[in-house]
Amino acid sequence: MRVPKAVVCLPTYNERENLEPMLRALGDMDVRVLVIDDNSPDGTGDLADRLASELGYVDVLHRESKEGLGPAYLAGFRRALASDAELILEMDCDFSHDPEYVPRLIAAAEDGADLALGSRYVPGGGVRNWGLLRRFISAGGSAYARIILGVSVRDLTGGFKCYRRTVLEVIDLDAVDSKGYAFQIETTYRTLRAGFKVVEVPITFADREVGGSKMSKAIVAEAIWKVPGLRLKALLGRI
User: Fold this and answer.
1) pLDDT at 101
2) Which stretches in the chain have pLDDT values below 70?
3) What is the pLDDT of residue 55?
4) Which of 6, 70, 79, 155 is in Cβ range 3.0-4.6 Å of 31 for a Cys bridge?
């Protein structure tokens, strides 16, 4: 059976301690990995170059500065679309997304999903090492987005995804302007609005053990105001 060509987009900023273990773990998944480094001051980009010279399935895209998760992924998507990739994945480098789930997302896409979304909020999914407050904020944020946007996807803020390339060719990447985690909401919503099939695959999300979180008040604020803005654009026929 032919295996579809898959590229994992892996954005990094100060992920030196996590990068090599993650790349070696992905080496068993029959995928290519595109590291997208935003000029990390801790030397992540240099390490990525060294590993790319050693590991034949790794490529590196260097960006000049840290502009946010959204622009990093968009740059990675465009590089992947310029190749012969049939499936394009996104995931975190800090092991909050377990690489062992990658084959499940690919299998869901092979079974007919246009977007296979690793979901914490469907039966079989969950989180690990989170306190009650963080659980409340995360679940509440997903519910807030789901209600305002009027969709049934349970984990709209999820960022562990596998797209068919056709989706990214259709949803107008040039119009996507979210910088932080709102990027995940916006891209999933645009996928749904374009009529593509989104399938949620249960995953367990674990908090990072090494390195610092990239979450900030500005990222949370963007997600809050971005959701009604997306709904308004949809009502005006702009999505």
Assistant:
1) 98
2) 1-3, 208-219
3) 97
4) 6
- The pLDDT value recorded for residue 7 is 98
8 A C-beta contact, residue 93 and residue 36: no
Question: What are the C-alpha distances in Å from 51 to residues 26, 47, 54, 56, 76?
Answer: 13, 6, 5, 9, 18
- Please give the domain boundaries of the chain with CATH numbers for all domains: 6-235 (3.90.550.10)
What's the CA angle centered on 115, arms 193 and 85, to 5 degrees? 120
| Contact indicator for 75, 36 with CB cutoff of 8 Å | yes
For tokens 């990214």, name the residue: 168
Left (φ > 0), alpha (ψ -120 to 50) or beta: where does 172 sit? left
User: What pLDDT score was predicted for residue 223?
Assistant: 75
Q: Rounded CA gap, 206 and 180, in Å?
A: 19
d(CA 183, CA 1): 34
pTM for the full predicted model: 0.92
Q: Which residue has the tokens 């259709």?
A: 170
pLDDT score recorded for residue 3: 60
Between CA 189 and CA 44 the distance in angstroms is 32
Question: What is the pLDDT, as a whole number, of residue 207?
Answer: 81
Alpha-carbon span 107 to 111, nearest angstrom: 6
Please state, in angstroms and rounded to a whole number, the distance separating the CA atoms of residues 85 and 49.
21
Tokens 């994992």 -> residue: 8
